[in-house]
Amino acid sequence: MTGIFYVFAPAMTGNYDKALTSHNQVFLNPLMFYLLLKFFSEKNARYMMAAIGVSFVFAPNFALTSAPAFFAFYPLAMGFLLLYTRFVIRRRIPWKWLLAAGPVFVGVQAFHLLPQIINLIEPGSFTNTRVFDRASIMHEGVRYFTAILPLASVARNIFLTPVAPFVFIIGFLLTKGSRALVLTAGFYVMVLYLYSAKITGIGVELYKQLFYLPGFSMFRNFIGQWPFVYTFFYALLFGLAAYEVLQRLKPKFAVMLVVVAVGVWTAGAWHFLKGETINAIHRQ
User: Fold this and answer.
1) DSSP class of 283
2) What are the domain boundaries of the chain?
3) Within 13 A of 239's CA, how many CA atoms are on the CB side?
4) pLDDT tens digits for 227-274?
5) Cβ(197)–Cβ(152) under 8 Å?
6) What is the pTM of this model?
7) Do 229 and 159 meet the contact criterion of CB atoms below 8 Å apart?
8) Contact 233/180 with Cβ under 8 angstroms?
9) CB of 213 within 8 A of CB of 131?
């Protein structure tokens, strides 16, 4: 049920003619998350090697043009997995394997990373200016962010699917706030802020100050850069809470609830299933 919701969420089924490369995130983010989760939980290096192999096959998603998508998902995903391993399943973090995997990943991606790194550190280059020049950050980052701020909607993001917030609450009450739910909810709230931005005046001002961190200006289009990550953690939290609810229902009622939910989400994504979103002339 959660997988159907994730795939058919609005962020996943729209904008295909403008974001064909970045839409690999729809399956790439959960696939990489799963492989890394298995690596942390089982301490099996094969899962890490598989993740590195997948990153090579989809190298454009780890290149400069996909930097916003990469830095939006992977730092949060790694942070979640480290905390989950240490405090939820209470296992040691395999730091030696992580340190060994880092150079391997860089080596596999070196054919495109090295030119990008050179361009980044070269004074006066386009990338160097966009990342480190304060005037460029103000013009390209803060002003653009301010211009699209009226499009932000916290309520619309929370009620991405109407029943989910109630499932969250019931799941917390049933489990009395399990460690897994609390950790996932914490990351969900964090991404909700990054995706919505317009959460009180203080929240807006804080977001503006984040632009002066080198590279954060890549998130000036916050409504375009965070939806994949937001939907992932939304679905993860929904899945954990829904599991707690469904296992306490009688089987026939649980099946009925799943069928109705999947039917509603499928109907909402009918334009996607018909191919209307990809049968279009690409803008470039």
Assistant:
1) -
2) 2-273
3) 14
4) 999 999 999 999 999 999 999 999 999 999 999 999 989 988 888 888
5) yes
6) 0.92
7) no
8) no
9) no
